[in-house]
Amino acid sequence: MTSAKTATPSDTAAGQKVVVIGAGIVGANVGLALLDKGYDVTILDRGEPGMGASFGNAGGIAVSECAPVAMPGVLKNVPGWLMDPLGPLSVRWGYLPKMMPWLLMFLASSRKQRVEQIATNMATLLNRAWDDYDPVLKEAGLTDAVFKKHGAMAVYRSNASRQAAEYAIDLRRRNGIKLRDLTGDEVRDIEPDLAPIFACGVMEEDWGHVLDPFKITTGIFKHFLDRGGKFETADVTNFVFRDGKPRAATTDAGDMITFDHVVVACGAWSKTLAKRLGSPVPLDTERGYNTTVPYHDAKLSRMIVCADDSFVLSPLEMGIRVGGAVELGGLLAAPNYERAKALFAKGKEVLPKLNAEGGTEWMGFRPSMPDSTPVISKSPHHANAYFAFGHGHLGLTLGATTGRLVADLMATGKTPVDMTPYRINRFSRFYSI
């Protein structure tokens, strides 16, 4: 594999100005990969780099998570989501009318044949994640001290709940994911501080986690700047077109920033800009909540996926993070931190030594597509526009891979994988365009 360090700059890239909109983990990786190709790259963001979903996520490098959120039989869960505002996945009633198109596409993606396709498509990306990250991390000086690769453990309260997950586990195994079944005794041997309430578990062997998601993003971003990349604080609102192509970004401050190529990579805020470029897309946001507390007496050696209750425990540099719930409620509604409190109560049941003293609550916006598949795509309308968003729970995991693929698309149009499943217009039949 050609690493980022040994990549040869493209002759055609020399002097070409690229604007990347979004300074999260995806945007930072895209910018860095484009520098490797020889482009002159400026990243734009309305806020500080890494302060969106990249700041407070669970920190997982979840390379085993190729199964989509919408699995066969998900339809029977919808009434419960609507009735339980503190459940693992809920929908705000007031947002439901706006969410309906997304939910219908979500349900359409849960058909078994479609789920099988999605899992294969996602495994194609996820199976590359470590190889694509390795050169980036080495060059940026982000070593094993902050980036751990020692698996995650999914735990089940009963053999029945483990059996209920068999299809999803088998689906992942058939797509090259290494999973190892554990007895209840093995679960307790690996993580003795967990409550003795688990009948069995599954070790997800290639999973990893970072000790501070924000430090990883800002570390890669700093490396981007050290390599000659540029950053401007700007809230992009529209584009200026010349000769049928976007040639400049306009901002809420009235500025105009010119470019030869543009990449929209601003997470949950990408929908409006994609539409400005002629590509309406069913992107919405999964509002995720968590609580991070100092370690006190609790200890964990790796991430714990509490499968029955759909949340995770992450051992991070600053403490243990309890999070993972999904709320479908858009970008504007105020946070409901009762969700974070409900998650923490479940976390304390699983890890009794958790102590809320000194803890902080957080809510972030996961940019999510109905089929749990990111958009990594050239524009079907403009030869100089590209998209990199919609990674859902896997933005950190797929950051480097997305950067590599976008850079390949721009420089040569030749990529190591078939990009058809990740195209932005895969839902175009739902739109009048």
TrEMBL record:
Keywords: Oxidoreductase. The keyword Zinc-finger does not apply. InterPro entries: FAD-dep_OxRdtase (IPR006076), FAD/NAD-bd_sf (IPR036188). It holds the Pfam family DAO. SUPFAM superfamilies: FAD-linked reductases, C-terminal domain (SSF54373), FAD/NAD(P)-binding domain (SSF51905). Residues 17-409 form the FAD dependent oxidoreductase domain. Transmembrane segments: none annotated. This is FAD-binding oxidoreductase. It comes from Thalassospira indica.
